[in-house]
Amino acid sequence: MKIGVKILPLIICLAESNYFICGPDGVCLCDNYNRMDCSNTYFSIREICEFIGNIAKYNVSVLHLERNGYKSIEYFDLQGCDKLHELFLGDNNISSIGKDSFINFDRLKLIDMSNNTLAIYDETVQHTFKFPLSIKILMLNGNLNVNISGQTAYPDLSYLTHLEVLNMDGLRNKVFPVTYRKIKKLHTVTLSGLNGNCNISHLTNVSLQNLPHVRTLNLSACNIENIHAGAFKNLPDLEILDLSQNLNLGFRMLRNISYSLQFTKIKILNVSKVHSTFGMGTRLRKRDLCYLWNTTLTEILLNSNRIQLIETNALIMIPESLNILQVEDNKFTFGPYLLQLGCMSNLEEFYGNFQNTAHNPILYEKEPTGNVNELINGYSDCPFMQNSFLQNISTLKEYCPFFENDKIDTKKDWPKFPKKLRRVEFAQCDMQYSLTSFPIFPLPVYMEYMDFSGNILHSWIGPIGPFPNLKYLNLSRNYCSHVGLQFFDLIGSVENLQLQENFLGLVLSDENKGPFIFIKMVNVKCLNLSSNIISYLPPSIFSTMSKLETLDLSVNNIETWTIDVNTLNNLVHLNLKFNFFQTLPAVLRNKLESNSERLGKQFTIDLRNNTFTVSCNGKEYLKWMVKHAHNMLHFKDYIFHDKTGAALSVEQFVKEVRHLDNECRSYTLIIVFCSIGISVFLAIVVGGFLYRNRWKLRYLMRLTKVKHFGYTKLHNGLNEPEHFMYDAFISYANEDLRFILDKIIPKLEEHEMKLCIHDRDFLPGNNIADNILEAIRKSRKTVVILSKEFLKSKWCLYEFNMARMESIYSREGDNCLLVVMFENVPTGNMSTEMLQWIQSNTYIEYTTEEEGNLLFWENLKDALSE
Questions:
Q1: Distance CA 704, CA 201 (A)
Q2: Packing angle between helix 794-809 and helix 694-709, nearest 10 degrees?
Q3: Are 545 and 599 part of one and the same domain?
């Protein structure tokens, strides 16, 4: 009995997936999709099939038996497995299969016999077994016996009339037998040397003629050196052709390949790595691409071919049907062909990553040292490469110039891009440039995705574009340290902006530049600023990004959250790992919660490798963190310390935070109550003092202001300070102005008294309070016309109190305040200060009686003449 072989994998799988233990002795794995995996168990096929046949509850339809060391299969071994749909027996040592082993397998659709030692390609061996007639997918690759010498042939599978997919080894200079024409449903044939053995060498016009129904043909890594011009002509339904990793093929064979593809329905052509990795740089010529013009290709793969140049006018022959072009891992340099990119008028996707890549030199000895086919004469009888034809096509294609004799006018021949291009990838290409202003023509209205990561685009000045519909932009890993204020102005439609692993910290922290860099990026939903040496960000740096959902500020040097989140109404995902945060402000926490509730999305925060200490200072944040532990990504990996600095596990941290209220309550209450008590006492004392001396303080403040900041006091030409400009300053309510104009001014000024009337004599433009204080100080007396309206005016009361203060503090005891009781005023309406003054000083009552009126004016003149 074999036990314990899969115990560890079982534990891992069970912990991480929906698999459960099954099979004999519980060494296999099953899932809810009726799949059983008994690979690497070394249990016999018979034991496993008996288990499946006896335990009907599993209803197994897919069985994996790879890598079990099986050497043969007999009829009795498979009893119980006859209800299977798929059977995988690859990577064993099976050399024989008993007759009628699959006789009862009427449901089997797939059988994998790859990488065994079946002699299925040996003509001298008589095979007694047959695969089930129901088979649709058959994998026989990796069974080619290297000891067979000259007696190889493709097996007769004509009885498998339902066969659709066939994986086999590719035999050198062998033709598929005519019997394969009977397999009319066979649409995919793989002879690749990547997952088996393939050594075809030469493809002639008859090698594949008996596969007329094939739509997908994989001949990768088959050591092909030569392909005849009619090799694929007899495959009219061919749509996908993979000739990659045939290092001896070279580009000169493209002429023959493309010639026969004219007669197919070809959609995808893969000729990646057909040039030696360490050979000289190569050039795509017109003769190589000539017949492509007459094909229906939608995608071409030319990766890993050390392409340096494309012959001028060659791109004119790219078929209009082409949508996708892959030219990764080459070494393109500048040439006129760059001005003809617009000739690919319907190109939608361009992949040019990994240009100028350095390859592992250990691979050199495993590759051919040169490409013989590169030396073939450049002459071609292809009619599509004639200048007259190319010139005519260029005129029919918009933005597709024709250059005769490589003559270029740099003033008018500006780079033009495929007008339907929507995706461009040019990552990790070792481009070292500063991105200055670069106009794009024609307007790239379809462009949605651009990836220029992993280059050395060290300065982004811009603006670039416009790209009115660009959604994804990746400029990460570019060593950039400078961003111009206009760089993003023409790409405001971007929703996913990847800027990680640059040096943007300094420019973003600049208060004069940082807030304006992203001001036009109003549609961004995902922003990645990870690894940018950021220590500070201005509050308004993301103020226009109201649609921002995911913000990544990980792996920086940020200690405090300074960003204003008031406009970030969609922010729900925040990555702050590997920073120096100890707390997050309440405004950010509240914003995340409100956004989450409103949008119906769970907010997430990643704070790994930030340190959190259990203390009363950060109690509210720590409690919030524990409450929302399910929102904290990888919460168990956070760093927690107690007050002494000792490390805490997540369980210990949660426990201590829950006890913080009791621990911090006493100190908090004492501090709060003491602070409140002291504050109230001081407020009462200070308030009482200020209220009691309020007019004195206001007077002294005004006096100080006038002294230090006011105008120089006028002395009417005299130097003595006791001389005044006015005999009296008349203080009155505006409602009593008629009395002042009709009585006071005429009666007093006829006796040559000079009066100060605020409607007439106040200096325009000065502060009212300053004018009042100057009038009182420049007048020998201040006459208050006391009335009910006077008591309602704040400025009248101000004039009274300022005159009272002047009498007390500035006239050496001389009373300069004279009150005229213009009408009977209830004492209850008077302020305390006014009532005290009336009670302790003589005032004059105004009356309209004839005798009393004469006495009033005499008393008033006498009082003002003192």
A1: 107
A2: 80
A3: no
pLDDT of residue 9: 46
Do residue 744 and residue 852 come from a single domain? yes
Name the residue range of residue 709's domain: 705-865
Task: Tell me the C-alpha distance between 55 and 65, whole Å.
Answer: 18
| C-alpha closest to that of 102 among 124, 76, 67 | 76
Q: E-assigned strands of 314-408?
A: 324-326, 349-351
- Of 418-432, 694-708, 709-723, 837-851, the range with the lowest mean pLDDT is 709-723
Query: Among 527, 553, 571, where does a domain finish?
Result: 571
**For 628-757, where are the alpha helices, taking DSSP H only?**
650-658, 660-692, 694-709, 737-739, 745-749
- Please identify, among 506, 536, 571, the residue that sits at the C-terminal boundary of a domain: 571
Residue 800 main-chain phi, psi, to 5 deg? -60, -50
Distance of alpha carbon 456 from alpha carbon 477, whole angstroms = 8
Element (H or E) spanning 256, and its range? helix 254-261
- pLDDT tens digit string along 520-577? 999 999 999 999 999 999 999 999 999 999 999 999 999 999 999 999 999 999 999 9
Quick one: DSSP state of residue 777?
H
CA-CA distance, 283 to 163, in Å (whole number)?
A: 42
Q: Based on the domain organization, do 531 and 460 belong to the same domain?
A: yes
pLDDT in the model for residue 491? 94
Residues whose CB is less than 8 angstroms from the CB of residue 676 and which lie 6 or more positions away in sequence, other chains included: none
Encoded tokens for 78: 């498979």
- Same domain for 851 and 775: yes
- Residues 844, 748: one domain? yes
Indicate if 472 and 599 belong to the same structural domain: no
Gap between the Cα atoms of 575 and 604, Å rounded: 8
Query: Structurally, how many domains does the chain consist of?
Result: 3
Type of residue at 509: S
Instruction: Judge whether residue 697 has pLDDT over 60.
Output: no
Q: Is residue 728 scored above 50 in pLDDT?
A: yes
Instruction: Note whether 847 and 715 are same-domain residues.
Output: yes
Q: Can you spell out the DSSP letters for 57-95?
A: GG---EEE--SS---EE-GGGGTT-TT-SEEE--SS---
The secondary structure of 608-621 as a DSSP string is TT-EEE--STTHHH
Ordered alpha helix ranges (H), 155-253:
none
Clarify whether residues 522 and 563 are in a common domain. yes
Contact 214, 238 (CB under 8 A): yes
CATH number at 551 reads: 3.80.10.10
Q: Any idea of the CA torsion for 585, 633, 542, 493, to the nearest 10 degrees? A: -160
